[in-house]
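Re: the 188-residue chain
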Amino acid sequence: MFDWEKFLKELESKIYDSGLRATNFGLLCLDFHLAKQLREALIDLKKNDDQYKTKKFFFEGIFLDLTDQTQSHPIINVKRKTISKESTLFSPLGQEEIVWELTEDFDLEKYFNDNWFVKSLDLNLEKKKELENAKKLYKESEINFFEYFRKRIEIYQIIKPSEFEKFYKGVKLDVYQSNLRKVFEMVL
């Protein structure tokens, strides 16, 4: 006798997985779009600007915030401008771009003092120390934002927070990181 209940559960799971993979693909496309915008903003940044360091961390923080699917990174408030009101599959309300300008409410000291990590990291103190060290090295400009980003992914792959697992389902992380690195190559 055919087991309809089992069949429907398997079908539901496959549909869910397919939908999740499609959503993840769309979000990854947004990551690459954001990466290209960040690269241009960093290229345009003037090293003789009195606020160079703050702006650099602010711009990089936008990327670190918006690519952290665990939503644990401090939220960076940004201005946005509408570039198209036409809706698409991944932008049902139209397309917006970030205005790459430092906002008045950004406090660099507070930013680095805020929590940057998913709560489940507290269950693995060794990995938490590794990520805290990476954050410290990034703050001291001993490593760049992309090295911190890669360390975050590496550690989240080990501790497997549910939000991370869900977002990166079906994603070849080595290919994802390699392609992002190509986008950033000239600013790292």
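The radius of gyration is 19 Å.
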